[in-house]
Design goal:
TATA-Binding Protein, 2 domains, 8-stranded antiparallel beta sheet, 4-stranded antiparallel beta sheet, 14 strands
């Protein structure tokens, strides 16, 4: 059974483009929007109102449950689909927390149910229920191999061989998953389907330990190591919730102001 674990993903995502982004004002439904474009995907990195009218407004937010609050992401994707190029069922909830009356909500992007590493749609909802801006790292066009050419056991063997002092430090596999990871190259962005394997020394598994570990991403087609990252246990191991994105027709009626 897969255990879901990702390290170092911030609420607004990561993986900024290497080409400079630019900001412009566009008119949408008669209103100005300030959009900072990702030059590599032509999707918004940031979006905010240009006239003070919220991107989305939640009525009676003080009465809304957390489950209802998490519907705001699919509503934003639906409303601004022409800019993002995604379907509402491509979101996977990353987190939804209330702090001092405001909600902070974030999602991963998925393709065919597989999370894309370092993607994010994130925003805050103020105490009046207004979403004034959002941040995103999303990919409207994604292709990847659907099958597997190497087994999980082969991937584990490759990862173990490339972790320094693996046996001496007595590393344990603490989490694993299959995900997509985008890699930039001279011909653009390529998506690899990888085994993501997280290892920590057994002595570092105590919650108070400051000893780090490794995340190793193995290509499911070639045994190639796509990434090897140092992990620091206190830095937010994220567990996606058992959350199913709603269909547009199932979204709460009368809850959203626009």
């Amino acid at each position: 059974m897969w255990t879901w674990l990702f390290l170092g993903l911030m609420i607004w995502g990561s993986g900024e483009p290497t080409v400079a982004a630019h900001t412009e004002t566009v008119v949408f439904e008669g209103r100005p929007l300030m959009i900072q474009w990702n030059p590599e995907t032509r999707t918004p990195l940031t979006m905010r109102s240009g006239d003070g009218v919220p991107l989305l407004e939640i009525k009676g937010i003080a009465r809304r449950t957390r489950d209802q609050i998490t519907l705001s992401g699919p509503l934003l994707v639906k409303k601004y689909q022409k800019f993002f190029g995604l379907q509402t069922d491509q979101l996977r909830l990353k987190g939804a927390e209330q702090v001092d009356g405001s909600w902070y909500v974030s999602y991963w992007q998925t393709v065919k149910g597989i999370i894309i590493y370092e993607t994010s749609l994130g925003f805050s909802i103020d105490p009046q229920g207004r979403i004034q801006s959002l941040g995103a790292v999303l990919y409207p066009t994604v292709s990847f191999p659907e099958g597997f050419r190497i087994t999980r056991e082969q991937a584990l063997n490759v990862a173990r061989a490339h972790i320094p002092d693996f046996k001496k430090q007595d590393y344990a596999l603490v989490a694993e998953n299959v995900l997509l990871t985008p890699e930039k190259g001279p011909e653009g962005i390529r998506f690899y389907k990888v085994y993501a394997l997280n290892f920590f020394p057994r002595r570092a598994l105590h919650p108070a330990s400051g000893v780090g570990g490794y995340a190793v991403f193995i290509d499911t087609q070639s045994e190639r190591i796509i990434r090897r990252e140092t992990l620091f246990k206190p830095l937010g191991c994220c567990v996606p919730e058992n959350w199913t994105p709603p269909k547009p027709e199932e979204l709460y009626k009368g809850m959203f102001g626009n």
